[in-house]
Amino acid sequence: MNLTESIRIALDSITSNLLRSILTTLGIMIGIMAVIAVVAVGQGGQQTIMKEMDKFGSNLFQIMLDWRRDEPPTGNEFTMQDIEIIKANVPELKYLLPCASSYSQIKKGSQIKTAQILGTEADYARLHPLDITVGRFLTKSDCQSRRRVAVIDEEMARELYPRDNPLGKRILIGNQSLAICGLVKSDSSPLALGTKYVYIPVRVWLDIYPDGNISYIEGSTSNLEDITVAMQNSIKILEKRHRNEGLYQGVDMEQQIKAVNKVTGVMTLVIGIIAGFSLLVGGIGVMNIMLVSVTERTREIGLRMALGARRRDILLQFLIEAIVLCLLGGVIGMLLGIGCAFLIAALAKWPPLISWTTILLAFTFSAAIGIIFGILPANQAANLDPIEALRRD
Amino acid sequence: MIKMEHIHKVYRPQSNPVNALQDVNLHIKSGDFVAIMGPSGSGKSTLMNVMGCLDTASTGTYWLNGVEVSSMNNDQLAAIRNRKIGFVFQNFNLLPRMNALRNVELPMLYAGIDKEERRSRALDCIGRVGMLNRLHHRPSELSGGQCQRIAIARALVNNPDIILADEPTGNLDSVTSQEIMNIFLSLHQEGHTVVLVTHETDIAAYASRILLFRDGRLKTDEVISSSPGTVANLFINGDAL
User: Fold this and answer.
1) What is residue A333's predicted lDDT score, i.e. its pLDDT?
2) Is residue B17 part of a domain?
3) Touching check for B192 and chain A: CB below 8 Å?
4) Using CB atoms, which residue from A307, A311, A312 is nearest to B106?
5) Which of A200, B13, B107, B155 has the fewest CB atoms within 10 Å, counting from its CB?
6) Which of A307, A321, A385, A390 to mutate to test the interface with B (most CBs of B within 10 A)?
7) Which of B114, B142, B113, B110 is nearest to B126 (CA)?
8) Is B58 part of any domain?
């Protein structure tokens, strides 16, 4: 008995009782569908986050106030002087820059817009892949001489100047009038949530918001291996200068990526366990109906044995039937799962990621369930006594 | 062709032993047409099962075409059933979901014969029973007689040493029964060895030799001439039925 013939017999038997076959394999179908959909959406989300993180480069770190601290911030934790001293004392550093940010209003005549106003320095463009489409980013001399200039994103420019060239035009932030010196491509990633950005020299920012302060500092090293040392040493200098241990905390991208991977790893495990249970239930359904099938087809089994089928031929026939049944459920479930993934992803606004690994895994899983839950009925069929079986109605 | 020596078959030897066959000795030559007769419970079905290698004897030896099969394992017996024996059943036992052609091809699948040869041999055998115009019909679309013809084609397809027919006309009317028996007769004339189990004397009359069983023992073994009435006489003399 060759394989194609066994599969043909299996398909014959499945299609001759189509409704029952579909109901039988429904458990597998739903299980596989759920796994595919959730994994695809999850991996799509993970990929989106990773892409976002990749923009920063993995040798980037940030030092911010430890949010677990007990005392309220004084507003004096990061100073421009700190930055100069750290730069001078930590040789591993390539760049180090202050970031002061506020979410506030921009005025142009009577028009009022809201944006993330980031006060920083020229090197910001080296740490982040900003795409300058018109004009230029902030320069060192902008920052040193407190030039009243701003780089705004294209989205903001379109809203403020739908017809004119925004370059050189003036906008009002707080009480300061700033000239637009460049446009940066808007962040179109779903995680940006449509936030618009305005970049201005940090000293200008501090002039606009006299009560504001530098929120965090960002740095990078030339070598990835140096990142932890550079970050730790920078923190030590800050702690010494401000006589306050445990006030600062540093985060590097490596850590963040690891954290995301850990979260997604746990998520995958949980999904795996749930899927495992649903497939287990599905498998029991398949086993049940295969046992019914063996009973119904006892005469057929007896006849096949009389015509020369060995026990292993019968075993294989029923095993293949269980596998084909499960694979059928698996394939339908997979298609439904892919459909669901696209639907969910469309609602969540990020692309689903359907990898070959997932598809292969779903396939292997359904086949494995067929084997595991098919073996008992198949064995029962193979151990029938041909004479008894032939006599059965 | 078939040689049985001191065949015993005991069912349920431990709890409640039933002696289905007791010391059966018989010899069937190649080309014989043998009818096995006897009342129900006489052991003829058991003999048929042992002869067809569906069952093994408790004791005794059985040679089929010079090969001792009484000590074979399950797989070896399956191979013997596949290649050396062609079964014909009372209720035809065709698979309902397969058409006539595929039903006839079935034994060849287990013999591992390739697709083209399967097709040509199946067509040849279906031709011999005159059913070439019903190749793609399913059993439910065929009459009883047509089903039995297909079943005979299936029995022939692996070119077996013996054809074992168990009440092959039991489910057929008398006219169809005659047609089916004529097929067996012509197979016998072509040189096939045919063993037939029946309890109908007019069916047994087609055979050239009759074995009569009673209470698990071979009662009489008569070679009969083709003249009518011989079989009836046999039963009167042998006090069989």
Assistant:
1) 93
2) no
3) no
4) A307
5) B13
6) A307
7) B142
8) no
Q: Is the CB of B43 inside 8 Å of chain A's CB atoms?
A: no
Q: Is B38 within 8 Å of chain A by CB? A: no
Please state the separation of Cα A289 from the chain's center in Å: 40
| Angstrom distance (rounded) from CA A92 to CA A252 | 15
Start-to-end C-alpha separation, chain A = 25
Is A330:A367 a contact under the CB 8 Å cutoff? yes
Asked if A2 lies within 8 A of B112 by C-beta distance, the reply is yes
Percentage of chain B lying above the pLDDT 90 cut:
76
For the segment B160-174, the average pLDDT, to the nearest whole number, is 94
The more confidently predicted of residues A260 and B130 is B130
Q: How crowded is residue A132: how many other Cβ atoms within 10 Å of its Cβ?
A: 13
Let me know if residue B52 belongs to a domain: no
pLDDT at A130 (0 to 100): 84
Distance in angstroms (rounded) separating the CA atoms of residues B44 and A98: 103
B238: pLDDT strictly greater than 50: no
Question: What amino acid occupies position A302?
Answer: G
Name the pTM for this structure: 0.73
B106: chain A residues, CB-CB within 8 Å: 304, 307
Length of chain B, in residues: 241
Does B32 map to a domain?
yes
Q: Which of B54, B55, B110 is nearest residue A309 as measured by Cβ atoms?
A: B110
The closest CB to that of B110, out of A307, A386, A387, belongs to A307
Residues in chain A closer than 8 A to B97 (CB atoms)? 12-13, 16
Q: What dihedral do alpha carbons A277, A282, A283, A287 form, nearest 10°?
A: 140
Is the CB of A306 less than 8 angstroms away from the CB of B52?
yes
Comparison of pLDDT for A194 and A344, the residue scoring more = A344
Query: Domain span at residue B220?
Result: 27-41+82-238
Burial category of B190 from C-beta neighbours within 10 Å (exposed 0-12, middle 13-18, buried 19 and up): exposed
Task: For residue A16, list chain B residues with Cβ-Cβ distance below 8 A.
Answer: 97
Determine the residue of chain A that is closest to B92 in CA distance.
Answer: A303
| B206 contacts chain A (CB < 8 A) | no
Contact A300/B at CB under 8 A: yes
Q: For the residues A156-166, what does the mean pLDDT come to?
A: 88
Q: Do B93 and A308 touch (CB under 8 A)?
A: no
- In total, how many domains does chain B have? 1
Quick check: A202 and A81 in contact, CB under 8 A?
no
Q: Is the pLDDT of residue A237 over 80?
A: yes
B53: which chain A residues are within 8 Å (Cβ-Cβ)?
Answer: none
* Encoded tokens for B75: 């797989």
Give the position of tokens 């705004």.
A152
Tell me the per-residue pLDDT of A75-105, one tens digit each, with 9 for 90 and over: 778 888 899 999 999 999 999 999 999 998 9
The tens digit of pLDDT for each residue in A21-70 reads 899 899 899 889 988 888 888 888 888 877 777 766 667 888 988 877 77
Any idea how long chain A is?
Answer: 393
Domain boundaries in chain A?
3-52+258-391, 70-245
On average, the pLDDT of chain A sits at 87
Q: Within the 16-45 window of chain A, which residues sit less than 8 Å (CB to CB) from chain B?
A: 16
Give the CATH number, domain containing residue B153: 3.40.50.300
Q: Is residue B240 over pLDDT 70?
A: no
